[in-house]
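Attaching the record inline, Q. Sequence:
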Amino acid sequence: MNQRDSAGQQMTGATAEGLACFETATHQFRCYIGDPLASVEAALAAAPQMVMAHVLKAYLHLLGTEPLALPVALECHATAAKLAASERERGHVEAVRLLAEGRWRAAGRVLEDLSIAYPCDALALQVGHQIDFFRGDSRMLRDRIARALPAWSKSIPGYHALLGMHAFGLEETGDYAQAEKQGRKAVELQRRDTWAWHAVAHAYEMRNRPKEGLAWMSTDIDAWAKDSFFAVHNWWHQAVYHLELGASDEALRLFDGPVFGARSSVVLELIDASALLWRLMLRGVDVGSRFDAVAANWAPIAAAGNYAFNDLHAMIAFVGAGRAKEQEAVLEAQRAVLDGELAAADNLEFTREVGHPAARAIQSFGQGRYAECVELLRPIRHSAHRFGGSHAQRDLLDQTLIEASRRAGFDALTTALVRERVALRPRTPLAALLEQRTRPLAKAA
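Structure, as predicted:
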């Protein structure tokens, strides 16, 4: 029987039961809740020839940037490539192949073309949006979704996710008011859309409105935190708001609780844990031995060399914990990428342009070579988007540059950097602290 999904698209090899499980999985994936992998396994059990179920399973393993998940994704691709498929489905199979090879740009282009031809293919839009994020392509984060929106309406399941993704793209391109508006609309339609909650959180972060951000995230915590595999990142946003307000004790409490209390080994959650501790350390907060546990969880993949953004945050944890051997493992893996010894594809550019100098800069900071840290960070700070992440995440590099400059005794540069930051964030205790630290420097200059 010819099965079609809720948007009317052909689902080759599907059965009624398999399609129902697949639709559950895609809903969970769109909202970042539940266990979409278990749901897609149920779909495959009911319909082993369902090509899009194999594709979704591959995407779920690839988009976490987990090195150990790659063999599963490759197996999914090998199976899907042998199955009967429509033209649209073959496009997805090709995108999986390219993504598994580390060819992020090419995979994103295939999915872009799919979305142009099939604008109601929600999975193509969502995976493409995530690839844009990992590549730091803010314009495509916005425009990939904007192109498809006119083809959608509230009558199509998943419309909320289009609004939430559009919100994040608007935020990353600086349209904060419209981003907040779209994100709120998404949450009104689907309160469990944790990506939309996150998009609005970013809009408040970028507008330097931490109090409003905390109020937003407190309105319905269960909606974005309960049974959500994106909860840690949203708790991270809460902690960043508290840091901006000078409430380091509250940020530490969140680290010890929902951010890293479970001692997660999930890469995306280790990134949040590493970044939060580093920000605390830059503010002069004693984080005790907390870096040790984070570093221990990074250690098994220290030499993976598969994604430069991960390398940076692994280095942060290793520097914070004083683990010299693992620091060198990160740098050796990056050198292998640069020398062509590791299959890298797009990660070669990510590493060369931003990841390697950024990782070296963090190590230099940890070794007290602050002038070297400054020299490494200054050339890359305006192109750091090229190795992925959000503006909010990459702000860590700017904060590190300010503190390294201060410790290196570069008084004029430090004053200039702080004035630059305070011009954008003039109303918070952190801004006041930075101004207080540099006031004597400005007088001396």
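The chain is about 70% helix and 0% strand. The chain has a mean pLDDT of 95.

More tomorrow.
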